[in-house]
Amino acid sequence: MTSAEPVTAAADLADLLAGPVVPAARGLLGCLLTAGGVTVRITEVEAYAGTAGDPASHAYRGRTPRNAVMFGPSGRAYVYFTYGMHWCVNVVTGADGEASAVLLRAGEVVDGLDAARARRPAVRRDVDLARGPARLCAALGIDRTVYGADLLGDGPVRLRPAVALVPAAAIAAGPRVGVTGAHDVPWRFWIAGDPTVSAYRRHVPRIRR
Fold first, then answer.
1. How confident is the model at residue 7 (pLDDT cuts 50, 70, 90)?
2. pTM score, two decimals?
3. Is the peptide bond before 23 cis (omega within 30 degrees of 0)?
4. Cα separation values, 32 from 4, 67, 99, 138, 167, Å
């Protein structure tokens, strides 16, 4: 299947995730992720190509205890802690050993709104509940316990196909966010005009004193 074709069944989604990371990332837009009594419709993602020449990937220098799940099988959850305070969740893609993954950057809460609000009581607007990768995890209650989970199974964290196809013309692409290497690679994809998509901030290298 190509990135322009609809994902209509769980088998199609499994096939999509087993393929190259960029089509997988585009195909994840509109899909549904459920955890902790909350379901979000994915509206923004970022692709990372693992050991295949992508210095922004956590797997660029090879396998470690932290990134081991990235090496397969596809459809698993790669969860990591960042800035000493936030969880982020990725969907593992590609053939075993490739270590590619798609970071879920933002989503629209479509079910379990009260539970999401309870986890993020300071948020004033519902569109901000899962607007950003750390916020998405917070709204869904995702943490380290989800690491390695089979997202395509019937476990407590489930990834399901989109209810309606996101047309190729509605998908925008641009540079990735917050990475020090290959930050201008246009592998961030989002549903154009969706209010839940996070604000873009270009990478600015730190000045060493």
1. low
2. 0.90
3. no
4. 18, 24, 23, 16, 16
